[in-house]
Every structure is written in C-alpha cells, then in structure tokens.
Design goal:
By secondary structure, the protein is of the alpha/beta class. It is built from 14 helices and 14 strands. The longest helix has 24 residues.
Length: 392
C-alpha cells in the first residue's frame, strides 16, 4: 500500500508548480500571429517583465531554456579570445563558464566550492590584476540552483566601480527571478538573465535578457552576432516577428500574461516576503532534524536562497529519502545535482506558486520518510516549520 495516490506535488526547484489560472490561459485555439490582440499582449509583457526586473532596460524574449539564455547573453558581448571571470558557487556557475569556453572565450573560474558564498575580495584581486582590462564580463549566478547559495550582486558592483574596471556585470537570475529581492538598476547589473519555469510560474521554454546601456555598447563593438541570438532586433523590433526571431511562442505568451497578472495582484514586496517566510520554515525544520542526525542545510546562514534549499545527509540517505517521498508520499524532491556525492543530497524547491500548506505538507512527508527509513534525526521539524509560518 502506498499513500502516494492522489494529486502529486512537484517540490523540485523548477519547473515549478503552475497555477490553474496559468494552465487555463493556454487552453485556447491558435491566434493570428500577424495582427490583433497578440501584438498588444506582447507589448504589455515586455513592459511588465522589466517592472519585475526593476529596470528601465528593455527585455529580449527568446524561445529557449536557461542554457539557451546563457548562450544568448554571451553571444552579444564576446568575440573569440575575449576573457571572462566566473565566480562559481555551484554547478550552474561552472555550466555558464563551459558555454563561454565553447564560444571561444578565455575563462577564469574562481571556484568557491559548493558550500560557501563568493568572496568579493578574491574577485577584486583578480580584476585588479587585469591591468589591460581584457576581462569583458563577470558572470555571476545570483542563486545557484544546485547548492542553494545566493550571491551578493551589489558587492560585485562595488568592486567593479571601486577599481574603475569596465567589465560588464552579468547576473543569471533564473532561479531567483520573482522569488528573491532583486532590482537590476539599483544593483548596477548590466545584463540580467531569467527563464519562465521558476518564479514566473510558466512552462519551460521562454528565456529573457534585460540589456543595459553599457551592454548595448559592448554589443556594438562586435562585427557580427548569430542572427537568432542577436538581441538588437528583439529589444527594438521593426516587425512583430523580430521579438522572437520568428514565429511567436503563442501559448507560452498567454500563460506568461496570466502569471504576470498574478504577480502584479500580489505585489512584489509581498511575494518576496512570502518566499522568505517559507524558506525560513524549511530551514527551521532542517535545524531540528539535524540536531540528532547528519542532516544539514548546504548553504551557510546569511547566503541561503529563498527559492531553493539544498540539504545533505550521508551514506546515500538523500537518494533513499527522495525515493521514499515520491513512492510513498507523492512528493517529488530535487536530486543532488552537481554535488560531490549526489545520492547524499536532495533539494526542496519553494519558488513561485507555493504557500504554507504546500511547503508544510512536503516537510511532513520528509519527516515521515526520515522515520520510516530510520534515518537518525530529531522529530519535530515539521512543527518547527509550522511555528515559523504562524509567525511564532
């Protein structure tokens, strides 16, 4: 007998749970892609996406996942032989570095491991040594989805400005967008990357770039950019089709419109606060469980993401627990992606369309799994999380 029968809960860090309202928005016939309502809808999407990003910079929309957006961002600012600096706090920092290397860039990775935040002084040291300003960009992942570590983008802006270094500050906000406090213009980010399937609560398949003035100037020095990845016609289209490099992703756009409406109705400040509270509930549960066992939150205090929490156990217990939760409790947890021993880890996504009963339910199933598998832990983690949600 399994208790998993019923509506399953996908508690992985993306694709995130899609609201019924977003799903319903896609249930319609194909629209006219040459004139009419779809053109007006797209103009509103571009405006509202920039509002969520906290910027006056225009948004470029791509039919692509996060890997595609990595390439789009780099294709517009790098020529073969250019240098980039990548402070990496997990698998996704290394992944972006690999894309830059494949495009012919010289890549310097500052590896901070998978359990520590980036150190701005190390970044400063490497930039200061670049006397001829060969480094074109600093590629930073705001929240690494594998490790749950959040990087302080403002500290990197201060380093660049203090040195007078012209490198662009480029921020992968795929995991954090719409979940963590982020304002592109205030932080001085030159290029922001995001995707549809996490805080934006929309199916995977759309990627976004917000391009600041300094990044547009960097694009102008290149002789050519691959036509599909070129952001210039996307941010200043002469025809509707140029928004997307061809046929519009029609039903994704309807879904995104519904999601952005929901974000506007709740308000960004309230959304950020909701994510912070639910994240603290997860951490509170982990602290209790780990008091009599090996379970630990991977990211140190002070740099933990409000969108995803990576946890580690040991002895393959992360994979055993993950499998029990799926098979017996109907809750799918994230794998230990990019970790040294993946089966010792698991991840909880708490991003986008999530509330107290979803997170508390997932934590209750995890605690049941710890007990059923006789994994050493202190009981009461789910109750500690409940107290956080109750404001106690």
């Amino acid at each position: 007998m399994s208790l998993a029968h019923g509506r399953p809960y996908l508690a992985i860090p993306g694709p995130s749970v899609m609201p019924d309202r977003v799903i319903r928005a896609m249930m319609r016939p194909a629209p006219n892609i040459y004139e009419g309502d779809l053109l007006d809808l797209t103009g509103g999407l571009v405006r509202d996406l920039s509002a969520v990003a906290g910027t006056t910079a225009p948004a470029a929309i791509y039919i692509a996942n996060g890997h595609g957006i990595w390439e789009a961002a780099l294709a517009n600012i790098l020529a073969p032989g250019d240098r980039v600096l990548v402070p990496a706090t997990g698998r996704f920092g290394h992944g972006w570095a690999e894309v830059a290397r494949a495009l012919g860039a010289e890549v310097e990775v500052l590896d901070f491991g998978g359990r520590a935040p980036l150190d701005p002084t190390r970044v400063e040291r490497d930039l200061a040594a670049d006397a001829h300003h060969r480094i074109r960009a600093v590629l930073t992942v705001h929240v690494d989805t594998a490790t749950g570590i959040r990087s302080e983008l403002g500290a990197l802006r201060e380093v660049l400005d203090g040195l007078g270094h012209p490198a662009l500050l480029m921020a992968d906000c795929i995991a954090s967008f719409g979940c963590e406090t982020f304002q592109m213009d205030r932080l001085g980010v030159d290029v922001t990357l995001a995707a549809s399937q996490k805080g934006l609560m929309t199916p995977p398949g759309l990627g976004f770039l917000w391009v600041g003035e300094r990044a547009e100037a960097a694009r102008s020095r290149l002789d050519r950019v691959s036509p599909y990845w070129d952001w210039t016609p996307r941010i200043r289209p002469q025809g509707f089709y140029q928004h997307f490099g061809g046929t519009a992703p029609t039903h994704h756009l309807y879904a995104l419109r519904a999601a952005l409406d929901m974000i506007a109705e709740e308000g960004l400040a309230a959304i950020w606060q909701r994510h912070e509270t639910l994240a603290r509930a997860v951490w509170a549960a982990a602290e209790i469980w780990g008091a009599d066992g090996a379970l630990r939150v991977n990211a140190p205090e002070g740099c933990r993401s409000h969108a995803v929490t990576a946890l580690r156990l040991g002895g393959g217990d992360g994979e055993r627990l993950r499998r029990w939760c799926a098979d017996e409790g109907g809750v799918t947890l994230g794998i230990g992606l990019g970790m040294d021993v993946p089966e010792d880890h698991f991840r909880i996504g708490h991003m986008g369309h999530v509330n107290a009963h979803m997170v508390l339910g997932a934590l209750g199933v995890i605690e049941a799994g710890l007990a059923a598998l006789r994994i050493p832990h202190r009981p009461g983690g789910a109750m500690a999380a409940a107290r956080v949600c109750a404001g106690l």
